[in-house]
Specification:
- The chain has 62 residues and is an all-beta fold.
- It has a domain of 33 residues.
- It is built from no helices and seven strands.
- A five-stranded antiparallel beta sheet has the order 6-5-4-3-7, with no helix packed on it. A two-stranded antiparallel ribbon has the order 1-2.
- The chain is elongated, with a radius of gyration of 13 Å.
Length: 62
């Protein structure tokens, strides 16, 4: 997955939010980090979970 970075007027990168769904639970959230085949997701409920990368699917918001 290639990310295209945007920059603020001060030249700092704007970190893109990547909406995802975790299967089979059908939890929704946004990726906030990755490490060693785990993806850190901040769920829409406010909880944080580390999930194996094979259970995460990127979704597109309208």
């Amino acid at each position: 997955m290639k990310l295209e970075w945007e920059y603020t007027k001060a030249g700092k990168p704007v970190v893109p939010l990547i909406p995802v769904m975790i299967i089979p639970e059908k939890w929704y959230g946004e990726v906030i980090g990755t490490s060693n085949n785990l993806i850190g997701v901040l769920l829409n409920t406010g909880e944080y979970v580390d999930v194996p990368n094979n259970r995460v699917r990127r979704i597109h918001r309208p």
